[in-house]
Amino acid sequence: MTNGVHRFSAVQRELRDRFAGIVETGDDWIEVGRIGEGESESWRVRNPADDMVGVAKPGPPRADQDGHFRAAHEKIAFDLAHLIGLPVSPVVLWPKDIGTVYKVGRSISCWAFPQGDKWNVAEGKGLISAIQKQSVAAEVAAMRVFHAWIGDGDRKPDHVFVDTDSPPDRLNIAFFDHGNSMSAAWKGPNANCGVCGHYLAGVPEDKDTMLAVAEHIAACSDSNVQALVDRIPARYLPTGPRGHIIQNLLARKGNLRGLVGI
Amino acid sequence: MADNVVALHFGRLSLSRITYHCDLQRADGPVIPLGVMAEFSVGHARVLGLIARTTLDQKELAIVGRMVREKLAVPFDFLKSDFDWACKEIEAEKLEAGRALKLLAARYTDSLFFAPPTEERVRATADFALAEMRRRRDEDFYSMIADLLGQRRIPPSKDISELAA
After folding, report:
1. Structural domain includes residue A85
2. Residues A83, A81, A237, A33, CA torsion sign
């Protein structure tokens, strides 16, 4: 587990390290176009400093929600995954219009690979081979444990990003969309919430990796986990839900084998 | 009203440009134009259309990811299943007017990208809905290709595109 469970290239690892080192972007990202529609609507944004592109969430339909801390959840999920070495797309917090249009702020996620599509799209277009599905057993197993830890029980194939430049015998994947995790599911201390099952057809279950990841998370120091939550500014995450997130993360991390049934 | 006078109604025309993004992480990453899907509803009439490129050139294919290269070589075939799906849903009256393109825009948000549809009120009769949709769809398609290739105008050509409506 020292190198983590992912197949990011050096370039992608550098991007992840850079984003993990920043809590809130100070750059003047520009909204360049809508992505998606309705509740899933978000904005494609561009950083004029380096021409990088990302996705700002939530979109306008959810902008005025002040009791759902999506941006904070996205950022904490990425930071925790980075700490453990798991494949979650890089995220930073974006303060533009926070407290006014966007009540509890937005996050910017970057695509984990230069080219790709969601799992359900790649699958629907017949792009993923049986061998490639078998090749991601470890990543999928690891993320199942991670999602159990952060209280994200509603995972779907369209929350998995597939690198469509993957070689024929293996698949590069990353996970995104953690806005509905943690305090969205945990309304108090020691909260009870469902864990997600195995949701990617054709990918074998890898219980050895699940076990290894559960033990790895259990061994993470409480202070490191707490520090990642505590560094989120209060305007994105007030005291009440912050406390619930810390308490639940620390309480669950030693009990993941029981939670996922291994 | 005289028999030879037909009432014009306002209909709703939705157009969605379909592109392939070869570097999602960079604003200057190459974008390959693939096609345009259109839906026009006027009165009870609803028409759906697709115009898409017949082939990609070798330069374009060289920058498309390995997993998708072979299938994307013929964009019209690659997109036809989405057109067929939308047709079926509309025929079964499962989707209200304008909804098909919105669902496709919500599904294809990454390298394969359906832009959120632009919507416009257009005056037409039900009889002329198909012709009007085709005209506007094709116009938008050639204008998209010209935009992305940095040219002023691309003349319509059967060598470039294939149609479904």
Report:
1. yes
2. positive
Quick one: average pLDDT of A139-154?
95
DSSP string, B122-148: EEE-GGGHHHHHHHHHHHHHHHHHHHH
Task: Confirm whether A78 is domain-assigned.
Answer: yes
The verdict on residue A5 lying in a domain is no
- The CATH number of residue A213's host domain is 1.10.510
Between B23, B71, B115, which is nearest A114 by CB?
A: B23
The model's pTM: 0.92
Strand partners, A47: A52
Residues in CB range of A254: below 8 A, 6 or more apart:
A218
Domain count, chain A: 1
- Residues from chain B that touch A175, judged by Cβ atoms under 8 A, are none
Its ipTM equals: 0.91
CA gap A115, A179 in Å, rounded: 23
* Beta-bridge partners for B112: B20
For chain B, which residues make up each domain, given as ranges?
Answer: 11-164
Strand pairing category for A173-175 and A160-163? antiparallel
> A258 to chain B nearest CA, in Å?
35
Candidate from B27, B66, B112 with C-beta closest to A51: B27
Hunting for tokens 């799906």 — which residue is that? B85
CA dist A40 to A35, A192, B106, B144, Å? 8, 27, 7, 25
Inside any domain, residue A2: no
Higher-confidence position of A52 and B155: A52
Averaged pLDDT of chain B:
89
Residue B158: per-residue pLDDT: 73
Residue B32 has a pLDDT of: 96
**Positive/negative CA dihedral, B103, B108, B109, B112:** negative
Q: Does residue B112 belong to the interface with chain A, where contact is any CB pair within 8 Å?
A: yes
Q: Which pLDDT score, from 0 to 100, does residue B2 have?
A: 55
DSSP label of A24? B
d(CA B89, CA B26): 36
Query: In chain B, what are the helix, strand and coil shares in percent, each to the nearest 5?
Result: 40, 30, 30
Mark yes or no for CB contact B24/A114 under 8 Å: yes
The partner residue sitting opposite B111, judged by closest CB among A51, A115, A126, is A115
Taking residue A42's Cβ as centre, other Cβ atoms within 10 Å add up to 23
Helix, coil or strand: residue A207? helix
CB of A56 closer than 8 Å to CB of A31: yes
**Which domain covers residue A91, as residue numbers?**
10-260
